Amino acid sequence: MDCRVLSVQSHVVRGYVGNKSASFPLQVLGFEVDTINSVQFSNHTGYEHWKGQVLTADELHVLYEGIKLNNVNQYDYVLTGYTRDDSFLDMVVDIVQELKRANPNLVYVCDPVLGDNGAMYVPENLLPIYRCKVVPAADIITPNQFEAELLTGRNISSEKDAVEVMNLLHSMGPDTVVITSSDLPSPLGDQYLVALGSQKRVTADGTMVTQQIRMDIPRVDAVFVGTGDLFAAMLLAWTHLHPDNLKMACEKTVSVLCHVIKRTITYAKEVAGPNRRPSPAQLELRMVQSKADIEDPAIVVNAVVL
Amino acid sequence: MECRVLSIQSHVVRGYVGNKSASFPLQVLGFEVDSINSVQFSNHTGYSHWKGQVLTADELHVLYEGIKLNNVNHYDYVLTGYTRDTSFLEMVVDIVQELKRANPNLVYVCDPVLGDHGSMYVPQNLHPVYKNKVVPVADIITPNQFEAELLTGKNISTEKDAVEVMDLLHKMGPDTVVITSSDLPPRLGDRFLVSFGSQRILMPDGTRKTQRIRIEVPKVDAVFVGTGDLFAAMLLAWTHHYPTDLKTACEKTFSVMHHVIQRTISYAHGKITAKKFFYICVCMA
C-alpha cells in the first residue's frame, strides 16, 4: 500500500492528542504519514499546567512551500482536527485546494472541532470558516451532535432529524459524514450513546445511493482526550480499506476506540488506586500497548443500517 | 513493559530523520516515546530545498518546565542526536542531569553528531561541549570513527587503536560505546565495513568486565539519511532487552538497519528504473 497522508495537527511532548494520536496508528496500518505540527505543547490542556509554542499561518505556509519546492506535494489524504486560529484554518484550506488540484482524488478528512455539550470551545469566528470554506472542501467529516447542529443551523432531537442534518451536511460538500456522538436515546439503554453515519456514493450503473447507519456504543465514565483524533485517523484508514462500506469502516473504527479506551481505563484505575479518580496523566491513551488491536480490531460494536 | 523515553531530536514533515526516524520503531517495540522536536523542517537538508523553524534553548526549557510542573518528569531513557546549537546542547545536558537526579537509573543514549569522513558538519564550538559536558553524562554513545577520534584526540588505524579509543571513551563516562562505522579493512572484503562495540559491566563480585565486539556489515552503494538516528534508537531498544549482552544487542540493531536499508534501496531502484526508462523514451522521441 503506497498511501500518503498529510496530517496538520497539534504535537504534544507527552501523551496522545492531535498528531501524536493520529500518526502511530496510521503508520502501524502501513500509511506514510507526513505531519505538520500546528503547535508543540508539553502536554494537552486538560492537565493542570501546559506550556509550549504555536505555529503561525505564515510558518505553516513556509513548511508547505518546502514540500512544494521539492515537488513532493502529492498526497492521497489530508487530515485535520483541533485548530484555534482563523488565519491558520484559512491557510489549511488553501493548501488542501492546491493539493486537490495536484491530485483530484485526494480525500480530505476533517474533524470540524467547534465544541461539545452545548458550548463552543474554539473562538466563535471559526464557525463561518468551517461552514463556508472548510466543510465544502472536505470529503469526510466527523462532527459531534453539537458541531453538526452548529454547521447546519438545525437541531437534532430524533434519529429522523439526524438523518436530515447528515443530508444537509452532504449538500455542503462531504460524501461521508459521521456524527461521532449524540444524546439521542439508545435502544440498548442509557449505558450506551448513539453515533450515526451517512455515506453518499455513485454505484456502478451511475445511480446515487446513500447508506445510513446507527451505532450504539458503550459509555465509559471518564474523560478521555485524543479519542476524537484517533477516531478521525482510524476512519481515514478503514474507509480507505472499505471505501464503499461505511458500516464495516465504522464498526472497525469504533471497535479500535473501544479496545484502546478499555485498556486505558483499566490501566488508569490500577495506577490511581482504589477509590481515587485517575488524573489526566494516568488517563493518557494506551496507544502503544494497543498496537495489535489497531492492526486487526476484533469487532465489538455492530452498526445498524437505517 | 513500562518504559518511557524522552527523545529530543529534529522533526521533519516528510521523511525519516531525527524524531521521525526514532519514534515509530521505538513505539512499535512498546516504548512510550515523549518527543521534543528541536526543529520542524519540511524535510531533511539533503534535498534540493528545505524550509522550517528551529526551537531555541529557552523554548526547550519552557517545554520541559511544562512536563515538570505536572510532575511527570520521570524517564527511563533520554535519546539525543544531531544538534547545531551550543546553548541548546547545554540545556539538554541540564535537563538530563535533572532527570538523573529524579531517576538515578536513567540511561542517556547519545549520538555525538560532529561530522564524518574527516570533516565536521556542525559548528566547531560544539566539540568542547560534547567532550566536556555531554559525553561525561552519557551512558551509551554511538560515534562514528571520526567522532570517536575527535572526542579522544587519538587516531584509529588498527583494531588495537579502536579498542584503546573505546577504553578512553569509557573513561570519559559511557559504559557502552559503539563505533558505528570505520574505514578499517574488513576481513570479509571491501564490500563490507567494520564497526566496533565495547561494554563495561559491573560483575556481582564487584569487578569490572569489558565485552568487546567487531561487526562487519555489508556496504550499500547509496547515501542514506536518518540511519544513524534509527541506529541509536534501536540500540536503545536492544540494550534495554539485553543489558549485559552487547553482542546480541548489536546483532539485532545492525540487522534491523540491514533490513530497512535493503527494503529502501530495492524500492528506490524500482523508482529510478522507471524514471530512467522515461528519460530514454523522451530522448528517442
UniProtKB/TrEMBL annotation, chain A:
List the CDD domains: pyridoxal_pyridoxamine_kinase
Q: Which InterPro entries match?
A: PM/HMP-P_kinase-1, PyrdxlKinase, Ribokinase-like
GO CC, any one term: cytosol
Q: Which family does it belong to?
A: Belongs to the pyridoxine kinase family.
Quote the subunit structure annotation.
Answer: Homodimer.
What does it do? Catalyzes the phosphorylation of the dietary vitamin B6 vitamers pyridoxal (PL), pyridoxine (PN) and pyridoxamine (PM) to form pyridoxal 5'-phosphate (PLP), pyridoxine 5'-phosphate (PNP) and pyridoxamine 5'-phosphate (PMP), respectively. PLP is the active form of vitamin B6, and acts as a cofactor for over 140 different enzymatic reactions.
- Please give the name of this protein: Pyridoxal kinase
Name the source organism. Answer: Cyprinus carpio (Common carp)
From TrEMBL, chain B:
Extract the NCBIfam families matched here. Answer: pyridox_kin
Q: Family, per the entry?
A: Belongs to the pyridoxine kinase family.
**Main localization category:** cytoplasm
EC number in record = 2.7.1.35
Q: What is this protein identified as?
A: Pyridoxal kinase
Partners and quaternary state? Homodimer.
What does the record give as the organism's lineage?
Eukaryota, Metazoa, Chordata, Craniata, Vertebrata
Cofactor names from the entry are: Mg(2+); Zn(2+)
Molecular function GO labels: ATP binding; metal ion binding; pyridoxal kinase activity
The UniProt entry, under InterPro entries, shows: PM/HMP-P_kinase-1 (IPR013749), PyrdxlKinase (IPR004625), Ribokinase-like (IPR029056)
Q: Which superkingdom?
A: Eukaryota
Cellular component, GO annotation? cytosol
Q: Where in the cell is it found?
A: Cytoplasm, Cytosol
